[in-house]
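Journal club prep — side note

Before the paper discussion, L.F. wants everyone to see what a predicted structure for a comparable chain looks like in token form. Sequence:
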Amino acid sequence: MNPIGGYYELELAPGPHRYHDTPYAFKSGRSSLHYILQLMKPSLVYVPFYTCDGLLDSFEAAGTTYQFYEINHLLEPDDLPELEANEYFLYINYFDVKRTYVRHLSAKYGDRLIVDCTQAFFMKGNGKSWFFNSCRKYFGVPDGSYLYAPTHMDLQPVMEKNEQYTVSHLIDRFNNHVREGYTSFLENEVLCGADLYGMSKLSEYLLSHINYAQVMEKRYSNYRYLDALFTEYHLFPPDEGDDCVPMVYPLLTNKPPDRKLFADLGLFIPTYWADVNNRRKTGFEIEKLLTALLLPLPIDHRYSLADMERMVKLIKRLQ
């Protein structure tokens, strides 16, 4: 029953836009993965070492055993395992430049492939394998993840919507206080854990107001501009004719970048992923090299070609 009277809420109404057509929407990528693991109860999942610890939270929440595998300079495993009964293989569509390889894996593993699309929001499921993404990696929303299941699976959507989030960082960023909002951003990352809740009502409304066609075109434009200048430093471009929508421009440098120098000049570039170096594992040299040398340059819809030009000048000056 809706209350009558009292103070006013946010003036939000559902918008006209919708990109994903799956009925399964969770609070986070970790929550989506937890749901898959809890439902399918795999005995073992092969997981890429080149990932963040956040993904591993889902395995802890579901009590699922995993085993790391290595990738090569093309972001692909050299050796693919032959899965035993009830074993699964998880692959990350890195930066959304690996769609062709995802199709190869899906043909091999079918419904025992889990595709992490947290860096590939615009990739949809194919009806054969599991796919999940993360909305807040692409848009100014507090939570959200879409999950695609194999078509033969009959799933029950999670009905209880997430209400455990903060929007302080979004408001700070809206008011151009990027640094001030970072602490709140980290707090919200913790809240976007692996527990099983549906996407918040707020994120649903905000996402329905995004013109996804314009967002994709802006990403294409910014990516092409950077690729014309940095193509020799981009070791894993999309395959010719691939339908990817790149998350970032993955620039591989020849020395570890000083991100603090960039941040002091208003250029904030993440590290994918510092967690790699904190694991006491021998080997995995490619993963450690990528963590040290990769600059994932922002190319999203917030930025114009003039912004790209300014970023290029900063990089050439500081690298």
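L.F.'s comment for the group: Residues 24-207 form a domain with the Aspartate Aminotransferase; domain 2 fold (CATH 3.40.640). Keep this in mind when we get to the figures.
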